[in-house]
C-alpha cells in the first residue's frame, strides 16, 4: 500500500530500495519484498525522528527473535554464542538510523535526523502513515514505516499511544 | 598504519573495522572512540593516520569534532561514515576539511575508493 502526503511524497518503492540495500550490504542477508502484515504481538520497535521542513519518523518493527537474528548478522555472532540485549538495541537502532538517514536524503528542504530510539516492545506510532515496506528473508520478516507528524507534535512523547 | 573509528554505535564501529579489513587494510591498528569528544582525546593520545567518524552522535557530533580538530591546528586526514549523504552535508563536510564522505550502507569497494587517495 502506498499513501503519500503533499509535504513528503516518499513512496513505498523508494523505501523498499533503501531497505533492500541495507539488508544486502549492512546485514549481508538476502531481502525479499513482502508487504503482507505480520503479528505485532511482542514485536519491538526502533525509531528515529526527522525534524525541520518536514517532521516525522521512520520505524522498524520486528519480532524479538528477528531482532536477535539481525544482530547476529550484523556482528557475525554464531548461533552458539549469546546475544546481549544491549547489542540487540544497538544493532536494531543502527538499522533504523541508516534507513532514516537515507529517507532524510529523499526529502526536500532542510531537515535533521534524531538519534535512534529502541523500544523492547511494540510501540504503536501516533502519527500519519506515509508509506511502509516489508522485508522478508528465510525465517524472518520486518516492517519499515515512514510517518508524518505535525511539527508541534515531534518530541520524545511522539510514540507510545495507541493509534 | 593507525585508524581511528568514531561512532556511538558499537555495532557500527565493528562493521567499519570489518569493512576496513575487507577493503585490504588488514593487520593495521584500529583505535575506537564513542563520540566526538572521545575522538578528540583519542587523536591527541594516539595520533592516527586517518579518522573515520560518524556524523550524528550525542555529546559532540562528527562535524563539531572535525571543526575542533582543525581549530586546534590538527590536520589529521578525516572522513565521515554516515547515514546522511545529502549534497548540503557533503558541502559542509568539505568546507570543514573532510577528505571524503562514505554513506551507510557501504561496501568494501567504497572504502577502498575513499581511502586510497588519502593513504596513498
From TrEMBL, chain A:
<dbReference type="Pfam" id="PF13690">
    <property type="entry name" value="CheX"/>
</dbReference>
<protein>
    <submittedName>
        <fullName>Chemotaxis protein CheX</fullName>
    </submittedName>
</protein>
<dbReference type="InterPro" id="IPR028051">
    <property type="entry name" value="CheX-like_dom"/>
</dbReference>
<dbReference type="InterPro" id="IPR028976">
    <property type="entry name" value="CheC-like_sf"/>
</dbReference>
<keyword id="KW-0145">Chemotaxis</keyword>
<feature type="domain" description="Chemotaxis phosphatase CheX-like">
    <location>
        <begin position="44"/>
        <end position="118"/>
    </location>
</feature>
TrEMBL record, chain B:
<dbReference type="InterPro" id="IPR001789">
    <property type="entry name" value="Sig_transdc_resp-reg_receiver"/>
</dbReference>
<dbReference type="Pfam" id="PF00072">
    <property type="entry name" value="Response_reg"/>
</dbReference>
<dbReference type="InterPro" id="IPR052048">
    <property type="entry name" value="ST_Response_Regulator"/>
</dbReference>
<feature type="domain" description="Response regulatory">
    <location>
        <begin position="2"/>
        <end position="119"/>
    </location>
</feature>
<feature type="modified residue" description="4-aspartylphosphate">
    <location>
        <position position="54"/>
    </location>
</feature>
<dbReference type="InterPro" id="IPR011006">
    <property type="entry name" value="CheY-like_superfamily"/>
</dbReference>
<protein>
    <submittedName>
        <fullName>Response regulator</fullName>
    </submittedName>
</protein>
<keyword id="KW-0597">Phosphoprotein</keyword>
Amino acid at each position: 500500500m502506498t499513501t503519500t502526503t503533499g509535504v513528503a511524497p516518499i513512496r513505498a518503492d523508494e523505501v523498499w530500495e533503501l531497505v533492500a540495500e541495507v539488508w544486502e550490504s549492512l546485514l549481508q542477508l538476502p531481502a525479499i519484498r513482502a508487504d503482507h502484515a505480520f503479528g505485532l504481538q511482542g514485536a519491538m520497535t526502533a525509531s528515529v525522528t526527522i525534524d525541520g521542513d518536514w517532521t516525522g519518523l521512520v520505524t522498524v518493527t520486528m519480532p524479538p527473535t528477528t531482532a536477535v537474528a539481525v544482530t547476529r548478522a550484523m556482528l557475525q555472532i554464531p548461533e552458539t554464542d549469546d546475544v546481549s540485549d544491549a547489542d540487540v538495541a544497538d544493532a536494531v537502532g543502527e538499522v533504523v538510523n541508516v534507513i532514516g538517514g537515507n529517507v532524510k536524503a529523499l526529502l526536500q528542504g532542510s531537515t535533521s535526523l534524531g538519534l535512534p530510539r529502541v523500544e523492547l516492545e511494540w510501540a504503536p506510532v501516533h502519527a500519519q502513515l506515509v508509506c511502509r515496506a516489508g522485508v522478508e528473508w528465510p525465517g524472518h520478516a520486518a516492517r519499515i514505516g515512514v510517518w508524518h507528524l505535525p511539527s508541534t507534535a515531534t518530541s520524545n512523547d511522539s510514540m507510545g499511544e495507541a493509534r | 598504519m593507525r585508524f581511528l573509528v568514531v561512532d556511538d554505535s558499537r555495532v557500527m564501529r565493528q562493521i567499519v573495522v570489518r569493512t576496513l579489513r575487507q577493503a585490504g587494510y588488514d593487520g593495521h591498528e584500529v583505535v575506537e572512540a564513542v563520540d566526538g569528544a572521545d575522538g578528540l582525546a583519542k587523536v591527541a593520545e594516539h595520533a592516527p593516520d586517518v579518522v573515520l567518524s560518524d556524523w550524528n552522535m550525542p555529546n559532540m557530533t562528527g562535524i563539531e569534532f572535525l571543526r575542533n580538530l582543525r581549530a586546534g591546528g590538527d590536520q589529521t586526514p578525516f572522513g565521515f561514515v554516515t547515514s546522511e549523504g545529502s549534497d548540503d552535508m557533503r558541502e559542509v563536510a568539505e568546507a570543514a576539511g573532510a577528505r571524503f564522505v562514505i554513506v551507510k550502507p557501504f561496501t568494501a569497494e567504497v572504502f577502498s575508493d575513499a581511502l586510497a587517495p588519502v593513504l596513498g
